Amino acid sequence: MSVYSYKAADISGKIVKGTLDAADEKSAADRLQDMGYIPIKISQTGNAAGQTSLRLSGDIFSFFKKASVRDVMLFTQDLSALLTAGLPVDRALSILISVTEKEKFKEIVRDILKSVEGGSYLSDAMAKHPRVFSDFYVNMIRAGEAGGVLDAVLERLGEFLESSQELRDYVKSALIYPIFLVFAGGISIIILMTFVIPKFSVMFSDMGNAIPLSAWFLMGLSEFLRAYWWIIVGVMTAAYLSIHQYIRTPAGRLQSDIWKIRLPVIGDMVRKIEVARFARTLGTMIKSGVPILQALDLVKAIIGNRVITGAMERVHDRVKEGERLSAPLKDTGIFPSLAVQMITVGEESGKLDEMLLRVAENYEKVVRNTVKRFISILEPAMILVMGLVVGFIVISMLMAIFSMNEMPF
């Protein structure tokens, strides 16, 4: 048995706090429901990792931060739990306002509640905040309201956002160490080239041709970096700004996306990420009752690569003409044959939504495994490259020092 602290709401909406003994978080939630409470937040005492998915994240600087994807995910899961427990939308929103710790997001929820109390639909109230709630999110809520299954749609939305966030966090965390290696190695090389080698240059200035060629090269490069570093920084900055400005144009964004999907390893990973995103988004929307043509329209806004977005437009047009989804997906040449075959089976069995979600789960696992393998190769390769560069510098300087001992005096 473990001790769990909880925050819950009673039937009148009053917030209560306390602790209880339970075998796990689910048992604690069941006990709270038996007591007539609606769980809001449950955490194992002394262990922050034991918090449930109902927790709402806080930050001492939260007032100055924008609402994040994680904020929306936790809000969705909380709202789903409260509506499933039988609370009306306005009461559920009031409870969420009282437990939300991030001030910016609390203001957004308060504005949504004000609109709902004024007679607006929840979807319309959320549509007033497009930077927080996407068209995909709003249309899912609208479909749930129309079908009278808002709580179920919110539950699916919460699962969708959680899966997307997990994949995003996994990729980011996997790249932290390689980025650190590049930063640390780059700083080490800059220090050697700008502070250490100039010390040796003074010693070797009178040796002439007796210095090895590699040492002459390093000393010349070091002198150039020290004298013209501002030109190098200026050129690099101008190049970055020019490329960034070009990528912001429609033609530049398209060209950038073409390069991304053509890169070895990276391109295949990008395609698989977009396939997983497409399948999970479309499957979630179809399962929630959104018509397939409307869902395909919304999916285009979710896809990040313009090349794949263009392919989705062609898929939409052909489905609108009466074709099945699998045939135009196959003709795009972007979707793997396995994914197309699984979608075909889903169409034939009448379980397209379930098969799309299975495709998403499959390719999310593939992406994780690909990232893991890529990082396992990238890390030693980067260490090797950094070691070779630093080793070349050190050995060149040592050879120059040894050459001094061989000079006749």
The strands making up the biggest β-sheet line up spatially as 2-1-3
Distance between the termini: 83 Å
Number of helices: 15
Portion of residues within helices: over 70%
> Quick one: how many beta strands?
3
Q: Return the structural class.
A: mainly alpha
Q: If classified by CATH, what would the architecture of the largest domain be?
A: Up-down Bundle
Q: What's the level 1 CATH class of the largest domain?
A: Mainly Alpha
Percent of residues in β-strands: 5-15%
Mean pLDDT rating: 81
Shape category: globular
Describe it:
This protein is mainly α. It folds into 2 domains: 1-55; 156-409, Type II secretion system (T2SS), domain F (Receptor-associated Protein, Up-down Bundle). It is 73% helix and 6% strand. Strands 2-1-3 form a 3-stranded antiparallel sheet. It is globular and about 90 Å long.
Secondary-structure topology with pairs:
Layout: E1 2-9, E2 15-22, H1 25-34, E3 38-44, H2 69-84, H3 89-99, H4 103-117, H5 122-127, H6 135-147, H7 150-204, H8 213-247, H9 250-262, H10 266-287, H11 292-302, H12 306-320, H13 326-332, H14 337-349, H15 352-406
Antiparallel strand pairs: 1-2, 1-3
